[in-house]
Structure formats: C-alpha cells, structure tokens
C-alpha cells in the first residue's frame, strides 16, 4: 500500500498501520488493560467526532488526528472554565451571552488543537516508544515537522483573530498565556508535577472570560475560580496519567502518577477538597444564590465518586473517569447560569440614591 495524497508524505513504514489508525486512533495493550476509541459503536443519528474524522479525506485526516479532533474531551475540559467565568460575570438576571460563549468555544477548539500540535512536536520521539501514542501522525511519520508547523501557524493565527474580538485588556490577558502553552510540554522532562503546569495553562480561560465581560480582574472571584480549576485539573489529569505510568518509567518522563504512586487517592482527595473550597470562596466573592451551591454539591459528589471508585491500575477505568469530568463542567455551568438569573437586578435609581446619600453623609461628617 502506498500513500499518495496532498500534504501527506509517502511513508512505506507507516502504510501498514494507516487503516488501523483511521478506525481506531489510539489502542493500548498491557497485562491488565485494553483501551480503544474505535468508532465501531451502535448506530446513532448524531455522528461522533471520531466517526467524522474516520470518514474525512485521506489527505486531511492526519491533520485532524494531530489536532485530536477525534477526541473532543480535551476541548470540553478547556472550555468549561471559560463558560463558568462568562456565566459568573454576566449581569444579574440575564443569561450569558451566546456570542461570548461561541467566541470562547471556537477559541477553546483552536487553542486545544494548537496545544496538541506543540505537544507532539516536542514529544514525537517519546511518542514512538509509548503504545498509546506511537501511531500519532508525527510519531508514525504520516506528517512531517514542516507540515505540523504550518498547521500550528494557521491555528495560532486563527486564535489571535478570535482573541482580537475582545477588549484590549482581554487581549493582553490572553496573550500572556502563550509562554505556558509553549512551555507546558517540556515540564514532564524536569518535574514530577507537569499536571500542575497543565492546570496553570488549561484554565486561563477562567481569568479571560471574566476579563472579557468586566474589562478588569479587580474581583477575587475569577482568581478563586482559577485556583479551583487548577486543582480540578490535578485530579483528572493525574487519573489520566496513570494510563501511561509503565511507559513513562521506561522512557524516563515524569508525572504526578509516578510521584504520588500508591498514595494517589489521598492526594486526589486533597485536590478535590481544595477544588470545592475554592469554588465555595468563589461563590461567596461573587454573591451567588442557592442554585450555585446545589450545583456545587452535585460536583462535589461527582468528584467524590470518581476519586473513590477509580482503579488507578486499570487504564480503561482511568480513561472513563477522566472523560466523566465533562459532566462536572456542565453541572457547574448550569448552576451558575441559574444562580445569576435569580440574582436581583440592581435598580440604577436606587444605586444613584445610595451614592447620593453616601456623599451627603460624608459632607455631614466634614461639616461636623
């Protein structure tokens, strides 16, 4: 079989795996686990991301696989903190702006894709040695570095175009995250806490969403949200990292899964408690109403379930628990939206009268 298509090099050594890669982009075997994201699933009226990628033209498919379009969970996990922040910054009694949600949704897709390309450019030699990643387009040779860099340039340019739709303060906040985006993939070479670096990078939208609506970061609420999302990332990405711990030891890269080892669940519990505590502080700082705290109780239960039930030595279970975090995202978003709707709208006349009375009180004190 010879690969002949625009934008894809002729790579005989990878030809034998192309068909398998098209239908199942990641397969992982060892003594205890089998992970497959095969598209062979019960018929559905709504096509899945993996089925759309599998059905795409052969000259485009490697690019979509490099962007992880077939695995949208990463985009959702990047997007949810943005939605929380947008919903929390929305004026009382109103629904969040669909325009802002769309802008941030598009940005999340583009930046997550760019992050995957950067990660694979840094890690292609490591990926060749890991069962779960050895068929990625750069590791396999379906795409060259030059092609990947071209794709990255397009993604970053599109992301900049999205960012420029926001106010200038937000543009500065968004641009300041690029050092983290580029540097995160290197963390696993030098520290056992690359998941902490991922948390700093992945949840920047918690700050950016607030800045886009408010035009500043003067409130403590977005910082509490950022802290909560960071600790949430430590939970789900440590669980994710347990899939690769055997290969990570062999090739010499680091992760919290290796650092925490048998004590993982104790640390996950601490991160989970920190997540809930930070979300509670965030709710208090932003005057949330009761639906927020109902949603917070539900997210607490979801965190408790996944931490308590995950089998860190079972790759399939780790993957399932990792994917379940999108439910936490949508539950909390729904709670914030409902909470904001129930907030009382501030009456401009009452605010003006209150300000006038305050000034009069100050004048009385001065006269006295």
In words, what does this structure look like?
It is globular and about 60 Å long. It has 20 helices and two strands. Strands 1-2 form a two-stranded antiparallel ribbon. With 368 residues, it is mainly alpha-helical. Helix 4 runs antiparallel to helix 5, helix 11 packs across helix 13 and helix 16 packs antiparallel against helix 17. Helix content is 69%, strand content 2%.
Poorly predicted sequence stretches spanning 5 or more consecutive residues: 1-13, 15-43
Going by helix content, strand content and strand pairing, the class is mainly alpha
Helical proportion? 55-70%
Biggest sheet strand order reads 1-2
Shape: globular
For the secondary structure, the number of strands is 2
**Average pLDDT for all residues:** 85
Q: Give the end-to-end Cα distance, rounded to a whole number of Å.
A: 94 Å
User: In sequence order, what are the helices and strands, one letter per element?
Assistant: HEEHHHHHHHHHHHHHHHHHHH
Pathway: Cofactor biosynthesis; ubiquinone biosynthesis
InterPro entries: HB_polyprenyltransferase-like, Prenyltransferase, UbiA_prenyltransferase, UbiA_prenylTrfase_CS, UbiA_sf
Protein name: 4-hydroxybenzoate polyprenyltransferase, mitochondrial
Main location: membrane
What's the short story on this structure?
The chain is 69% helix and 2% strand. By secondary structure, the protein is mostly helical.
